[in-house]
Amino acid sequence: MEYVVALADERHFTRAAELAGISQSGLSSAIRGLEQELGTALFDRTTRRVEPTAAGFALLPHARALLEEAARAREAVMRVGPAISGSLRVGAEQCLGLVDVSALLSTFHQRHPGVATEFAQAGSHELVGAVREGELDVAFVATDRHLGALRHTFLGGEPLVLVVPPDHRLARRATLRWEMLDGADFVDFSETWGVRTMNDDLLATHGVHRRVRCSVNDVHTLLDLVTRGLGVAIVPAHVARKPQAATLVTRELPGAAQPSWSVSAICPLAPAADAASALLLELLGETPTCEDEPRTDETCMDAPREDAPRDIAPALEQGVPVTA
């Protein structure tokens, strides 16, 4: 069933085989065998693309459900065993707002000190790739692209807003029209960030041609550049509420239907760290978001340091604040 899900999501035998960790010929043989067993074709194959048939689409939700149930069964068995050990590799995009990753990792380490926890910070698209390649066990991302073959849990969403310097021409506008943004200078995140893809698609849809003068990998740098007049920016609403944005003017984007930026937790369908991943995600309900109470920049992982330890366990044991 994992092969069916991978091929349905990727619509390409080579990419699906890479995702499933099998050779292309092995994947093709497995799919043909299942089709013979069921007595019907599950996929229409062309030289350029693979599309599920009506039977394939009918099977797909059941295939996903079986994989989810199998993963839950593995997790249940592993939880009743002895104290878990091993490693857990976690990744997150910076300043997700809806989840305090630093607090989450700290709580996890306190409860499961036998697990060596590693953390990596990167853009959402890079993190999705790392999970798909087996380089991360869990990642917190702000994108819904290429998640079909991964287990993903929606954590929440919020609208995108425009932030501009107080002396910018758009600051004097109570409401905006898309054409007002045409030709504007922008500060935006790098192309590996989920919000950058959203911004590119959103503006292109409305015919807005912009100049991205500055491309950054840090929330505070983006806000600083906007404050200094280097451009305007479209950001998730919680970023506009940060202290560093206090002097900026926030405007809703045009239209009644505001674009929604969302955050999800993702992991492989059959993660290498089954029990550890499940236990980490179970703590989400106990862990505050970055906006539940006043927090330092470090606790929300807003200020990455090049010298931050990748394995956070030694730092936590010494009581050192962790950033990544």
TrEMBL record:
Residues 289-324 are annotated as: Disordered. Transmembrane segments: none annotated. The keyword Transcription regulation applies. Keywords: DNA-binding, Transcription, Transcription regulation. Pfam families: HTH_1 (PF00126), LysR_substrate (PF03466). PROSITE patterns: HTH_LYSR. It comes from the Bacteria. Residues 292-310 have a biased composition (Basic and acidic residues). Belongs to the LysR transcriptional regulatory family. PANTHER family: BLR3139 PROTEIN (PTHR30419:SF31), HTH-TYPE TRANSCRIPTIONAL REGULATOR YBHD (PTHR30419). This is LysR family transcriptional regulator.
